[in-house]
Amino acid sequence: MTININRRSLLAGAGALTISVVLPGSQARAAIFGADKRPELKPENLSTYITLNADGSCTAYWGKMDMGQGTDVGVCQMIAEELDLPVERVELLQGDTATSINMGGASGSTGVQQGGKAMRSAAAEARYQLVELGAKQLGIPADQLTVTNGVVHSKADPSKKISYGELIGGRYFDTQLTWNKQIGNALFVEGKGKPKAVADYKVVGTSPPRRDVAEKVLGTADYIVDIKVPGMVHARMVMPPVVGAEPVSIDEASVKDIPGVQIVRIKEFLAVAAPKEWDAIKASRQLKVKWSDVKSPFPEQKKLYEHIRSAKPVKREDGKDVGNVDEAFKNAARVVEATYEWPFQSHAGMGPACAVVDYKPDGITTVWTPTQKPHFGRDGVANILGLPQEKVRGIYAHGSGSYGRNDSGDAAAAAALVAKALGKPVRMQFMRSEGTGWDPKGPASVHTARAAVDKDGNVTGWHFESKGFSRLDVNSNESEPAHTLAGQQAGAALKYEAAFGVPEESYGFPAKRKAFEVVAPLVDRSSPVRTSHLRDPVGPQIHFASESFIDELAFSLKMDPVEFRLKNLKDPRDLAVVKAAAEKAGWQPRTDARKQMRGDVALGQGISFAQRSGSRCAIVAEVEVNRVTGKVWGRKFTVGHECGIIINPKLLTQTIEGNIVQGTSRSLWEEATFSQDTITSIDWLTYPILDMTEAPETIDVVLIDRKDLPPNGAGECSMRPIAAAIANAIYDATGIRLRQAPFTPDRVKAGFV
What are phi and psi of 388, to 5 degrees? Predict the structure, then answer.
């Protein structure tokens, strides 16, 4: 089909004109643009991802999320690159189910790796369509045209030109893409337009700044706690004194002096609401409840790891052996073995979760939520309310942090239950004790590592096993009531999934075995130690054990830890990051702990390495250990990092720095504790985190830019090696091998005894 039209008639028909160009061989409709109204959100529609505005700028609609790392800027760079636009002329809308489809939210470091890849492909198709239309308007074959700053022009005569705004501005593509039929992280679309060659990149690899800093620093950003809806009431949950207890009777008269208070009870779920927030808080504290008698559900805290070791596994997963592991250990001259332990950990956001639900059974219900997965959050609210997904809109609002499945989904589910019961908009705000105490936890675990060594000091076999609570006791996407605290309390059928993981590495030992076992939750329903994803799910605990053991193994063979890794790692990418970190840190070879002292302070240096989502990272930690107080300071960290091609070096560096700080906190301080009745780590005193005075003095990052490789997930890789690097540095400083995290002053001092 051929259409001849001049620019004057094209612009005169803006808003009513639809021009269709059927591209030969296209799998589906491939037209240029349609009516003024944005077409329906469908994965196969180009307009779902990309529009061009009247001024020629681009608005992109992203079904993933940036949670403060600047991932959105990186995706804008990828889009700008393909459209040949300055990055400042690309706006990315995210976090609203009314404007984007479900691409998985912020999940598993897939923002650039998968979400950015899909948006780049859509942008490439948009450019292709615009150049095709430009060819018709200019009367010049498409292969003789190029684009500069959103202007399509002749390569031979740049004066022959037409801008994106003139071609399509203010209207929408009516182009269909080939869709892989996947929703969520794996979603991918493509058309006839092919992405650029890396050699032609101009925007990717530069470092435009984040766009959210000014509003956050100046206090002009709207946070979830700022959301207000007419007629809204404030709600608080009422939690049992013993985990598993249910309300038997409620003394409503105990709160009758509080204006407007209302009580909502659905099976185990109990909440209060009032027009004023302080009244809701008072009511939650003042309400007299008789709770059912239940057996104390938890073991003693000190017996947690004993419980894990002795518990019957609900799942075992064995990887495929390399070589003959049993024979290697049978014939070993000696066996090196060690066991490591990792606690439950809380997300411990700087503020507990909040959500607002405006329930409209005959209209569109809206949920405002700080979740990193607004589409799944929308689905969860729809499910708990019994509404179709299309009748619920999810809107992201800034919260206090995320990094996995925190308490945001729980707040949204609780708000939805109260809103439906009262028929009013509800703002559900958790208290600190609930945000820290009752959020889903990173799982506790035990890890055993063994190595077979022959008479010549060669490692002939390696066997690594983990045993712990599931990383998916509740799913990370909060799309079903069963995966939220309120949903479980209200009786939703449980959907437990047993999952853990194994180390990611390339050690070339002749025989290798990696396996894990998952044990049942301590309490199957409505538990404050429900386990789910915490930043880099199960990565820190697994690699704390595996990389601490690599150090122990190296020293047992009288080898330097860096030398041992360089000898046994087989992937050139792994070797490159280890070399980069060691060289930048000025690594001094050693075959045992050096125990260097400066007064009462011991100085040490340790290295660790890991892979994740295709990325590689090695970290050298330099620590100071006060032998009197037992306190450890992670003074300096040197990071070698490779994640394929780098989209934005500055933002990548800042992401790594954030990982270092949070990972150091988890390594030195963070441990969720409990009595036999309930959770006891409920505030900053009982769940301490790294404070500003303990932050590293220096973080040196060496980025290896692999332009020959696609971008890999970089949000979490540098979280993995931190604990082992610190533990190995503590050993170098003191000769104490800490095999239980966190490395608190008490545990360090106990090692000196």
Answer: -65, 150
Q: What are the start-end ranges of the E strands in 56-98?
A: 58-62, 90-94
C-alpha distances out from residue 192 to 125, 162, 200, 308, 405, Å: 6, 22, 19, 54, 38
Query: pLDDT tens, 403-414?
Result: 899 999 999 999
Task: Give the amino acid at 217.
Answer: V
Bond before 742 cis per omega within 30 degrees? yes
- pTM of model > 0.85: yes
pLDDT digits (tens, 9 = 90+) for 177-235: 999 999 999 999 999 999 999 999 999 999 999 999 999 999 999 999 999 999 999 99
Distance CA 240, CA 136 (A): 70
Instruction: Give rounded-to-5 percent helix, strand, coil for the chain.
Output: 30, 25, 45
Dihedral, CA atoms, 108, 109, 113, 119, nearest 10 degrees? Answer: 90
Length of the chain measured in residues: 753
Residue-range domains of the chain with CATH:
7-203 (3.30.365.10), 228-294+353-430 (3.30.365.10), 301-345+440-519 (3.30.365), 539-752 (3.30.365.10)
Q: What is the DSSP string of 648-669?
A: -HHHHHHHHHHHHHHHHHHHHT
Q: Which residue has the tokens 């340790």?
A: 606
3-state SS, 481-503, equals HHHCHHHHHCCCCCCCCCCCCCC
Q: Decide: helix, strand or coil at residue 561.
A: helix
Average pLDDT of the residues in 161-175:
94
Residue 553, judged by CB atoms within 10 A of its CB (0-12, 13-18, 19+), counts as: buried
Q: How far apart, in Å, do the first and last CA atoms of the chain sit?
A: 85
Cα–Cα distance measured from residue 61 to residue 41, given in angstroms and rounded to the nearest whole number: 10
Beta strands in 492-614 (DSSP E): 511-519, 596-598, 601-612
The percentage of residues in the chain with a pLDDT greater than 70, rounded to a whole number, is: 95
Q: Residue 527 and residue 519: Cα distance in Å, rounded?
A: 15
What digits encode the pLDDT tens for the residues 671-699?
A: 999 999 999 999 999 999 999 999 999 99
Strand order, beta sheet including 632-642: 596-598, 601-612, 615-626, 632-642, 698-704
Instruction: Indicate the range of 36-40, 357-361, 646-650 predicted with least confidence.
Output: 36-40
**Angle CA 713–714–717, to nearest 5:** 105
pLDDT value for 403:
86
Rounded Cα gap, residues 30 and 552, in angstroms: 61
What per-residue confidence (pLDDT) applies to 3?
A: 30
Residue 223: strand pairing partners: 398
The count of other CB atoms within 10 Å of the CB of residue 235 is 30
On whether the CB atoms of residues 414 and 428 are closer than 8 A, the answer is yes
What span, in angstroms and rounded, lies between the C-alpha atoms of 181 and 647?
Answer: 27
Per DSSP (E only), the strands in 520-600 are: 596-598
CA within 13 Å, CB half, 305: 14
What is the four-CA torsion angle of 330, 336, 339, 340, rounded to 10 degrees? -140
Q: Which two three-digit tokens encode residue 130?
A: 């615009």
3-class secondary-structure state, position 444: coil
User: What string of H, E and C letters represents the secondary structure of 693-737?
Assistant: HHCCCEEEEEEECCCCCCCCCCCCHHHCCHHHHHHHHHHHHHCCC
The strand pair at 262-266 and 269-274 is best described as: antiparallel
Distance, in Å, from the CA atom of 406 to the CA atom of 438, rounded to the nearest integer, reads: 10
**Cross-strand bridge partners of residue 702:** 640
H or E segment to which residue 291 belongs: strand 288-291
Can you tell me the distance from the alpha carbon of 346 to that of 680, in angstroms, rounded to the nearest whole number? 12
* Cβ atoms of residues 493 and 482 within 8 Å: yes
How far from chain centre, in Å, is Cα 28?
35
What six digits make up the tokens of 422?
A: 């009262």
Residue type, 692: M
Average pLDDT, the chain: 94
Instruction: State both tokens at 472.
Output: 């998916």
